[in-house]
Amino acid sequence: MPDVHAKFSPSASDRLIHCPPSLLLGEQYGPEDTGSEYSREGTEAHSLGEFLLKKALGLPCEDPRSTLKMYTTEMQECAEGYRDTVLEIYETMKQSCPDAIISVEQQVSFEEYVAGGFGTSDCVILGDGHMFVIDYKHGKGVEVSAEENSQLKCYALGSYLAFSPLYDITDITLVIYQPRISNYSQWSLKADDLLLWADTVLRPQAELALKGAGEYSCGSWCRFCRAKAICRKRAEENLMLARYDFARPDSLEEDEINVILAKVDQLVAWAEDVKTYALQQALAGYAWEDWKVVEGRSVRKYSDEAAVAKAVKDAGYDPFERKLLTITAMEKLLGKKNFEALLGDMVVKPSGKPTLVLRSDKRPEMTTAINEFMEENENGKEQ
Q: Where are the domains of the chain?
């Protein structure tokens, strides 16, 4: 996979479409962070998935596993699931179109709409007027939907521009495969609608972004912005909630609480981003007027575990305890398939702690005591 990233990259397109000036503002605070543990893990998982898929298709490839520093049984199983998902779509396509084509790690360009716009799509499948654009997401922090997904639409746009001179493409399906949270998302649109979006949304917003123009806008897209801790617009929107701090919770109206609930997670995230930024600046030498850096709490630990074990044994004691592996550790040891076969019937999942979420959340609503009471009363009336 190429290491070069476009200035207006498909992965950042959602933020740049919603908040064009964040592109140049973010560039003032260093290069994009691609060295985090999560980023490295995702890159390695993609490399493994690419290898397994190419191997299954009989394409030239090299096994990357000896170089993967974060390789686990879970990563192997997720990558195999990605391979199987792609192959299933490909085989289904070939049933109606025997000469269907598949491209793995397809480099695409949409410079016709965005200056310097390019990217790499995990997989593109073409046949019988239909194009599938498939993206493997190894992360599990945020569930990703294929619906109106601007990253996949950019990949689809680049793929359409590359293949449409040779193939008549009328329908496009975007697919997200996110195995670690059992998320498979699929969304379809017409090629004409994709081109309309590219012309009326992508092109004008990208032009603004590349010039540093347009309006700042805050939302979920702030998550990966390099300027998220110092952005004035984000600060202003989050500080608007401060006016509720001086009212007793029971004095708020329901509609006010509804507004707060919709924004409180963003408020907490913003506060943490500011604290992290301030700490980084202090560690780099900046002296805040009212704040200083101190050592946080730490726990005692052995300087040499082998020497400790020997000393305790020599004293006539057993320094070790036998303890059953946690479910996660046991699953890694056995692998998911073996774990399910051996221990599936012995694993139970207690009810989770009640959590307030948006009604759009996929999880079923809990039955509360008041709901049970109301249902019992309704049933009593019917009898």
A: 10-211, 229-283, 305-346
